[in-house]
């Protein structure tokens, strides 16, 4: 039963992934819509950052995680190396949880 | 590649959590390969582990993965043709989409990142499943901050452009407001409501340009 559920999720997810490229090749979008589609990925990803950084299971996350992500944001804005950004986020969050 | 290391580290905690919720060690590895969408797998394992119904776990997973539909629409032409296209669709994820949107060589970046995640995610899950309870609480190491940090670092160059930043920030606010109100996954789709302001922003920019 669990395996069937997992396979259903796998097939369903593949179909969701497939739908976008299929639609894009079949339909010609007007230039305005093309621009909307380009911005939509940035909007989604930014919302994903906000939701995963700030919330946990429908409520607010503990303060340590947003603090870590904030440090990452500041470092990224100042064009720090990628490795430093990601490690600083994890280290900040881990240290705050230790306190 | 560094993104893959971060993904692998998250996968270790995913594998450990799966085994801790009573699933066999191969389960997170197989699911990691076939579904290849981390947040939906965490949710699936969480629901099943808490004794929830597999049907509910599938529906919640599909809802979380619904963001891949607009991803696919926004994705530049990076998939190629023939059999590559079918694999290319499978490796569409948060990280590979950001790479395709932000790097100079979209197709190469998309494929490198996508294949890297396809390898690191299941391998990390296998390691986590093997370590099992030895990894007591992955959040002690701040691993939960790594995923948003990775995406933020990758998407930030796009956000320097005000025309993308304004709808993106508005979308983030909409999603956050919706989190307590809607099931997981839907707040992300709701963020797309921010696209309604894009035509107005573009118009203002044009007028300013003419003035």
What features would you describe in this structure?
The complex is a heterodimer of chains A (99) and B (211). With 99 residues, chain A is mostly helical. Chain A has a domain at 30-98. Chain A has helices spanning 2-26, 31-54, 64-77, 82-98, and strands at residues 55-56, 59-60. A two-stranded antiparallel ribbon of chain A has the order 1-2. In chain A, α3 (64-77) runs antiparallel to α4. The mean pLDDT of chain A is 91. Chain B has 211 residues and is mostly helical. Chain B has 2 domains: 2-159, no CATH class; 161-211, no CATH class. Chain B is 73% helix and 0% strand. Chain B is built from 12 helices and no strands. Chain B has helices spanning 2-20, 26-34, 38-49, 54-65, 68-74, 83-90, 94-102, 106-131, 143-159, 162-178, 186-190, 198-210. In chain B, α1 (2-20) runs antiparallel to α9 and α2 packs antiparallel against α8 (106-131). Chains A and B meet through α1, α2, α3 and α4 of A and α1, α2, α3, α4 and α5 of B.
Tally the helices of chain B.
12
Largest sheet of chain A at a glance? 2 strands, antiparallel
- The whole-angstrom Rg of chain B is 19 Å
Low-confidence stretches of chain A: none
Written as H for each helix and E for each strand, in order along the chain, the element string of chain A is: HHEEHH
The tally of strands of chain B reads 0
Q: What does the average pLDDT of chain B come to?
A: 87
InterPro entries (chain A): Brnchd-chn_aa_trnsp_AzlD
Keywords (chain A): Membrane, Transmembrane, Transmembrane helix
Transmembrane segments (chain A): 6-24, 36-55, 75-96
Protein name (chain A): AzlD domain-containing protein
Question: Which helices and strands appear, and what pairs or packs with what?
Answer:
The complex is a heterodimer of chains A (99) and B (211).
Chain A: H1 2-26, H2 31-54, E1 55-56, E2 59-60, H3 64-77, H4 82-98
Antiparallel strand pairs in A: 1-2
Helix pairs in contact in A: 3-4
Chain B: H1 2-20, H2 26-34, H3 38-49, H4 54-65, H5 68-74, H6 83-90, H7 94-102, H8 106-131, H9 143-159, H10 162-178, H11 186-190, H12 198-210
